[in-house]
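Practice set, problem 2.
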Amino acid sequence: MIQQRANFDWMLKELYKSVPGIEMIVVLSADGLRIARYAGDEDAADRVAAACAGLQSLAGAVAQELPTSDGEMKVVIIELNGGYFYLMAAGANAYLAVLADVVCEPGNMSAHMRDLVVRIGSHLTSPPRRNGQTV
């Protein structure tokens, strides 16, 4: 189920139903706070969101070393024993993360995530925070 922002329900549910094998979908801010989730455990979603902040920062740092890159992370895919992890930039200071089992085909997942971000990316935005407060 979706937590926090009910208006994300239809977006995340559609992705969940479109791609077999999804275990959890998390929308998070750049600083690792969970904005919404669909499926999976709430505490696990919070841990995934926190870990994603570090991962997107690391990917951005590596991207800066590529002379033709603007330094922005677009997508990270990690193959795990038993499944896959996907992290995609999804709007200003917002990211879309998905954990899926081995049934999920990575190209199919990436395409569905990209389509979702293109269609509703402006809704997946997290305002920057300073000292824990929205600025």
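Problem 2, part (b): a different protein.
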Amino acid sequence: MQAYKKVGLVAATVGTALLTTSLIAYPKAAQQRQQRADVIIVPGHPATRTGQETPVLKSVLDQAVKLYRRGWASYILVSGGAIHTPAVEADVMAQGLIQRGIPRAAIIRERHARHTGENFALAQPLLADLQLTRAIIVTVPWHMRKASFYARKYSIRHTISVAPAPRQVTEWQQAKYYATTYAKMLLQIPLAYEFKTKK
């Protein structure tokens, strides 16, 4: 019994150390506080295989639309390729925004990103071309530190607006999303902190 307790204590200590490392390595940006920006950025979230919105994706889009309608930004940039399903995430998100009444001219699509880092690496030149310098990033709670880190890495000035977890996502599922995301963040620390190479 003592051996099990020791193993549990070691596991808890290691888990705490790993979590702390992730939190330090990926600092969180300030949350949006009624401060106008130029653009709302929605990094990719998977759609269904038939190109429909999942509950998580719906929550993120609803939050982006709410900010847009309140006048906090003039554009919404959606980013994501066909990674988890055959559907291009940016196209699904753009269609969802149009169905919610967002003008096509206000939607910027980035259709090739394969992961969070590329969401912001590929968005940055699009923002520069349009001279959009301040962003509000809309994402779910377990993704905000990772999104904020990569926005900062690619010199995108931003705040975060957290979309609420949908009712369909249980607390247990949220815990799994946090654990999975933070584990990936920990493994990606060496890659995340690589300096951008000059072309």
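Answer key, part (b): The chain has one domain: 26-192. The chain is about 50% helix and 15% strand.
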